[in-house]
Amino acid sequence: MWFWLTVLAGTASAGHHLVDRYVLRDGKDPIAFAFLFELLQIILILPVLPFDFKATFEAIPMLLLFLTGMIEILTMILFVNMHKYVEVSISSIIMRLRTVWVVLLAYLFLGERLTVNGVMGTILVLAGLSVVSLQKFNKKAISSSKALIFPFLFSLTTAIETTLMKNAAKNFSASWVLIVVMLPSVIILPMISRGLIKKARKFFKAKSSWVFLASFLGTVGFYTFQQSLHFGDVSRIMPIYQSLSILTVFGGIFLLKERKRIWQKILGGILAVIGVILVKGG
């Protein structure tokens, strides 16, 4: 069960990364998009809440969930700026560092075991994605070298969120987690970005279909990912989830026309798939 939920989550995530990059690469306001993205995800998940509501109001689990929501604010700021300034076929590669962070965090703080197959699979996934990343990044591919800090830091903050959400999966339903984690962004972003509501309205009017599609795919990805955490270990889920980012690389190449070193990326994808098989059998 956890495997197929993870596959669905990874596929939906790849789709929303492509849509996000498509919308933001033309210089649209990234913070306005972040606000709309989080708000629409809450609205989309609300009908599910009565059917799977589960929550404990003990201090520690609630505190960890609140902390995840606060980290989500920074994560979203990094996320939208990453897609504004860095091509998705590049950012999706750099984000694979999240796999390393999650495996280490799960081992150190959650006590999850590391199997031989799991370790070998993780290494192959990272090797495959490293092969994809061995390319010369030019000025056309990257707005500036400084922009690479966005996917790098995003990989770290999402790894921390994922580790915290493993605890949340034991105490809260997926719909409740999504609402509580996204809500701080909806409340705080307008406070720190002047005129955000007006900008968000203008943004939505211009790109309503694409914003809705991105939010829908994001909601599906988040919800199914949370459900997968109910059934599997973070250290096994994340390499599979991350390896599906190869779909984002191919989407960037063929849909968004980011066409450089295609065969190199295909080789990296094959290595990643082999790694996924090993992790699944671990």
Describe, in plain words, how this protein is organized in 3D.
The chain is mainly α. It has one domain. The chain is built from 13 helices and no strands. It has helices at 2-24, 30-45, 49-52, 59-85, 88-94, 97-109, 116-133, 149-171, 174-192, 196-231, 234-243, 246-254, 262-280. Helix 1 runs parallel beside helix 12 (246-254) and helix 2 packs antiparallel against helix 9 (174-192).
What is the element layout, followed by pairings?
Blueprint: H1 2-24, H2 30-45, H3 49-52, H4 59-85, H5 88-94, H6 97-109, H7 116-133, H8 149-171, H9 174-192, H10 196-231, H11 234-243, H12 246-254, H13 262-280
Helix pairs in contact: 1-4, 1-10, 1-11, 1-12, 2-4, 2-9, 2-10, 4-8, 4-9, 5-12, 6-8, 6-11, 7-11, 7-13, 8-10, 9-10, 11-13, 12-13
Protein traits:
13 helices; globular; 282 residues; single chain; mainly alpha
The total beta strand count reads: 0
Low-confidence stretches: none
The rough form would be described as globular
Helix content: over 70%
Main sheet overview: none
Rounded to the nearest angstrom, the radius of gyration is 18 Å
Average pLDDT number: 83
Structural class of the secondary structure composition? mainly alpha
Indicate the proportion of strand residues. under 5%
Number of helices: 13
Please give the domain count: 1
- Element order, helices and strands? HHHHHHHHHHHHH
